[in-house]
Amino acid sequence: MRRRVLRVPDSDRVSRIRLAAVLTIVVVVIASGIAAAVALSARSPAVRGGNQVVGPVRLTPAQSAAQAAAATAAQTNSKLAASWFATQAGHGLVIGCDPATCAAILTAGYPTGGQVVLQPGVSLPGPGSLIVASAAIRAQYGQQLTSRAPDVLAAFGTGVSAVDVRLAVAGGAHAYGQAARRALAARRRAGHMLLKVRNMHVRNVAKKDLSSGRVDPRLTAALRRLAQHYPVVLVHFGDAGPLAGGAAQYRIAEIAVPTSRRGQREVSELRGMEKLLKGRRSAGRPELTAKQVAGGKLILEVKFLAPTPL
Which has the least CB within 10 A, 5, 18, 112, 219? Predict the structure, then answer.
């Protein structure tokens, strides 16, 4: 300090003025260093005592836009799932969902008081219930969700904003998988037997669906019942649920309504077919819709509500 900064030989004394000046400079440098360190720690994460203190994260415009788009997509998918419930799900079911989705299901017109609002600390509903797996539900229950409700009936959207409708089962995914394989084999046998019924007339695509075992057993039984009294021209199977897995079953069949000649008139057999199918108990009664297609022909849509039995 004496030789290089103050330029004073070792034998001479340092004046008080020079010493005060040097001390002032040192204090200013130290204070500036402390201020810089504080400013830097306010801008970036600091580690104290092993805990990381993270400051607020600022998103880029592109990140903000992506976040808003994901939130909009999730809300849209929840509304689509709610509309699906209003038209496709059986009444009186127990439904597990997050608060916003439960409200949307009721708003869509689904008539039940059996919703279970899934919040932290609430267990998943039991076998036979339907669970609406939004992003919040997937994050909350994780592997437990896919183990207890492995069967996807319908899915809306993809990625983190997707909303799945899942069926809760007994015994977990492994036991359900074994039961599902046995049920698939039984449905295939029933489909092959239906193709051999004399009054059944099945188009090629529908024939493949029957042989694959993907037709709801309630629908197979209804078609067999109709074929005992009428010629059944099977046009199309449909509605396994939007984006559902490959194992989902078809719950809808479209049938060409036959006519019979009475005197000089051609009379539709629609009323007789509807009466035959509506004569079942409510649990096994399908929804029936008559539609007129090109050429004036009538198509009878036979639909059973979800979930389908194995």
Answer: 5
> How far from chain centre, in Å, is Cα 274?
34
The model's confidence at residue 92, banded by pLDDT at 50, 70 and 90, is: confident
Cα gap 230→247, rounded to integer Å: 31
CB 178 within 8 A of CB 156: no
**Cβ atoms 262, 172 nearer than 8 A:** no
Q: Which of 11-20, 46-55, 117-126, 153-162 has the lowest mean pLDDT?
A: 46-55
Considering the domain boundaries, does residue 177 fall inside one? no
Contact (CB, 8 A) for 171 and 134? no
- DSSP H helical segments within the chain, as ranges? 16-43, 61-88, 99-107, 135-141, 143-148, 172-195, 204-212, 217-227, 270-278
**Using the 8-state DSSP alphabet, how is residue 244 labeled?**
-
Query: What residue numbers bound the domain in which 115 lies?
Result: 61-170
**Is residue 309 one of the residues assigned to a domain?**
no
- Residue 115 phi/psi, 5° resolution? -65, 140
- What are the Cα distances from residue 15, in Å, to 8, 290, 301? 10, 111, 108
What does pTM read for this prediction? 0.75
Backbone angles phi, psi at 295, to 5 degrees: 85, 5
Residue 205 makes CB contacts below 8 A (sequence gap 6+) with: 236
Amino acid found at 283: A
- Residue in this structure with the two tokens 């939004």, named with its chain if needed: 134
221 lies in some domain: yes
Residue 191 and residue 215 in contact, taking contact as beta carbons nearer than 8 Å: yes
